[in-house]
Write the C-alpha cells for this entry.
Amino acid sequence: MKIAVDVMGGDHAPEAILGGCKQFLEAESFRDAELVLFGEESALRTFAGENAALANRIRLVPTTEVIGFDESPTAAYKKKKDSSLVRAFETVKAGEADCVVSAGSTGALLTGATLTLRRQKGVKSPALATLLPTVTGGCVLLCDCGANTDCKPGYLQQFAVMGKAYMERVAGVENPRVALLSNGTEAEKGNALTKEVHERLSQMEDINFIGNAEARELMSGNFEVLVCDGFDGNVLLKGFEGAAKVILGLLKEAMYGSLRTKIGGLIAKPAFSVVKKKMDYKEYGGAPLLGVNGGVIKAHGSSDAKAIYNALRQAYTWVDGNLVSVIGETIGSIQIED
Amino acid sequence: MKIAVDVMGGDHAPEAILGGCKQFLEAESFRDAELVLFGEESALRTFAGENAALANRIRLVPTTEVIGFDESPTAAYKKKKDSSLVRAFETVKAGEADCVVSAGSTGALLTGATLTLRRQKGVKSPALATLLPTVTGGCVLLCDCGANTDCKPGYLQQFAVMGKAYMERVAGVENPRVALLSNGTEAEKGNALTKEVHERLSQMEDINFIGNAEARELMSGNFEVLVCDGFDGNVLLKGFEGAAKVILGLLKEAMYGSLRTKIGGLIAKPAFSVVKKKMDYKEYGGAPLLGVNGGVIKAHGSSDAKAIYNALRQAYTWVDGNLVSVIGETIGSIQIED
C-alpha cells in the first residue's frame, strides 16, 4: 500500500510532517506501507539522506509550489499545478497511491478531493468527519462537520452509511450506534431536515439508529456516529472548542489569583495535563473525507509529528480496511432519494 | 408595575420561587414593584403569613393545576385552564400585570406566550434569547436559542432588532454590536440562510453589524448580540454546556487520581468555585422571550431562590425600560421581508 503525503501543508511543515513520516515508517505494524512524499526538493533529499535505511519504502516527488491557508482554496488549487497537494491528489487519481494525508488548507483539500478524485458513484456529497474522544474511553465520529451546508435529507442518510463504514472498518467498532443531532431527544423534535432524516433513518435496517441526540451528548459515549448538516456540525465542534478554551482559561486565571489557589494550581498541574491529553485531537488522528474515489485524511493545521504519525496510522487502516470499496458497494446497494 | 409569577413552575417550586420573590420584594431598588403570585393556595397563604410586612405589595391568586415538564406543552396549556402558568398569562393579557416569570416547561411558556399574549404587530416570530457571560466581564445575548427552527431571513433580521432593543433597554449596553453565527468569519461563509441574512444585516443602518462569528467566539466579548436560527442556537448552547460538563468532570477525576493531585485538587477548589460562579446562569437571570404583547422571562428549570431573584430583577428592568413598546415601535418602523 502507498500513502501520498503533502509534506508542505500545515503550520509546522515540513519538519513536523517528515517527523511523523519517520515515526510511521519505523513502527513495527506498518512494514508493508510505502510513503510518496510531495514537497520542496532539498527538504525531501535531506530527509532521505538522514534515513537511508528507509529508502526502499519512500518515493520522493519534488514540487515547487505550496497552497497556503490564506489563499482562495479553489483558485489556488486550480492554479498551482505543481503544488504538493495537487500532485499528491493526481498520484492517487492515477492509482499510484491509495490515500492522501495533508495538514494544509481544509478548503483546498475539499477542492482537490472533489475536482481530482471526484465523488464515488452514487454518493450525493462527500462528508468531512471528525473523530473525537468520549468520556467512556471510546470515540465518536461527527459527520458532516463542515463540507456541506444546506444538506438534503438523503445526504444525511448517506453520512450515516459512510460513518458506519468508517467506524467499522477503520476504528474497529462493531455495529456502531448512529444518532442524529437535533434540538431535543424526542422523535418529533428538530427542524424540517432532521425530522425527515429521523423518519428515514428509522426505516434503514442496516443502520443501528438510536434516535436524536442533543449537542451536549457529543462526548457522552452513547453512540459512535453523530450525523448532522455540515453547518451544524461546525457550530457544535467549534462550540466545544470555544467552551474548552474559556473554561481552562478561567481556571488558570483563578488559580493564579491568590497564593492558596496558586499553590493548588501548581500541584494540580498534572491533572490539567491528563485532561489535555484526553481531549487531544493528536491522539485520534485527522478528519477523514468520506465518499470520494480514494482515501483522504485531513490532519489538523497545527499538527506535530505525533499527530501526523496518527493520521498516517489512520490512513493505513483505511486502505487496509478497503474503505473506499466498502463505501462504494454499500452506497450502491441502497436506493436513497435526495 | 406588576410582575406575574408562576410559583409552581420549576424543579424547586414552590419554595425556591417564593424565596426569590421574598428577596426581590425586600431589595431596596424595586420598592415600586408588586408581585402577583399564582400557585397552590396553602403555599401562598403560608408565604403571605410569614411576610406580613410585604402584604401590600403581593396579590395572591390560588390555582389548582400545574403544568409539568413531562407533559405535551400545547395540550397541557390548552387543557389546564386553572394552572398557575395559564392564569399568569391571562393576567398579563388582561393588563393586570406587565411581565410573566416562570421556571416551568419552556414549551408551555412558548405556547402561552403565543396563544394568550400573541405576537406583537409586525413580528414574524417571537424569539427565545439567552443571556450569557463573556470572558471580558460583559454579557452576550444569543437569539434565537430554541423557539424557531427553519427560520426565514427576515426572522433573523428581526432577532437582531429585538436583541439590540433588549441589550439597550434591559442590559444597558449602548449601541450593542451584533454578530451572525456562521461556519466562518468571512462574509462568503455560511449556508443559504446566513448568506442572505449577512447581506441584509449589512444594509441595516440602525444595526451595528460586525459580521459573521464562529461558534467558538460565543463568550469572547467581541459582540453583545449573536443572531442565529433557533436550531443552531440550541446546538451552540447545549454544546457549550456539554463541553463544560465534560471538562470539569475530567479535571475532577484526574485530581482525585493520585495523592499529589488530590491535595492539589483540594487546594485548587476555590478556583473551581470562582469559575463555576463566573459561568453560572443564575447570576444573569432567565431567558427573555421577545416579540409578544407582554414581558416573558423563562427562568432555568433548576432555578434556586437567587436565580428567581435575578429573573425578577430582569423582569423589573424590562418593564421599567418599556421594552414591549420599544420593540413594537422599532419593528413597526422597519420594512422587513420574510
Notes: Chain B has eleven helices and eleven strands. Chain B has a mean pLDDT of 94.
